[in-house]
Amino acid sequence: MTLNNVLELAKKNHFDEALSICNNYIDYNKNPREGYAKRAQVFAIKNELENAIADINSIEQIGLANSGDYFSRGRWKLMLNDLLGAIKDLTSSIELEAQNNESYYMESSYFYRAVAYVFSDEKEKAISDCKHVRDDFQVYLKGGIHTKSDLLKLCNNQ
């Protein structure tokens, strides 16, 4: 088995095997970045978000974090109600996407950061972030589908 298989294993609840593959990769490769990244995803699937965040912290410490890492860690922090941490990470994701002329995480980062702003009672910042999100944008969050429209209603009703 390789790192390519770990998410498939985790989705089938074969967590020990998935984590073992990641741990071996981290221990025996000069550049353990991908091992940490995959292990973070396995931990997230297990709903062990603190461990997932710790692995992204390790990637950041070795200087190899990318916009996707900050996006994931920001979402997980949001799920743990660490609003300031989520805002910081999602901002880093947005900045790296812009700096690298990429857009894969851009819209989602703005959306999740807007969610964090709403719950931080910074509605004007949330509304500003929503300007970077398509009208038909939607995500699955905390047990349901949420849209830009839902978020803007929260901004106007609170």
Distance between the termini: 50 Å
Low-confidence stretches: none
The overall strand count is 2
- Helix fraction? 55-70%
Provide the structure class.
mainly alpha
Overall pLDDT, averaged? 94
CATH class value of the largest domain: Mainly Alpha
Please report the number of helical segments: 9
CATH topology of the largest domain: Serine Threonine Protein Phosphatase 5, Tetratricopeptide repeat
Largest sheet: 2 strands, antiparallel
Our count of domains comes out at 2
> Which architecture of the largest domain would the CATH scheme give at its second level?
Alpha Horseshoe
Order of strands across the widest beta sheet? 1-2
Query: Could you spell the SSE succession in H and E letters?
Result: HHHHHHHHEEH
Shape: elongated
Cα gyration radius (Å): 17 Å
Q: Which range does the strand content fall in?
A: 5-15%
Please tell me about this protein's structure.
This protein starts with 5 loop residues before the first helix and ends with a helix. The chain has helices at 6-11, 15-28, 33-45, 49-61, 67-79, 83-99, 106-119, 123-130, 148-157; strands spanning 138-141, 144-147. The protein contains nine helices and two strands, in the order ααααααααββα. It has 158 residues and is mostly helical. The model has no long low-confidence stretch (mean pLDDT 94). The chain folds into two domains: 1-65; 66-158, Serine Threonine Protein Phosphatase 5, Tetratricopeptide repeat (Alpha Horseshoe), CATH 1.25.40.
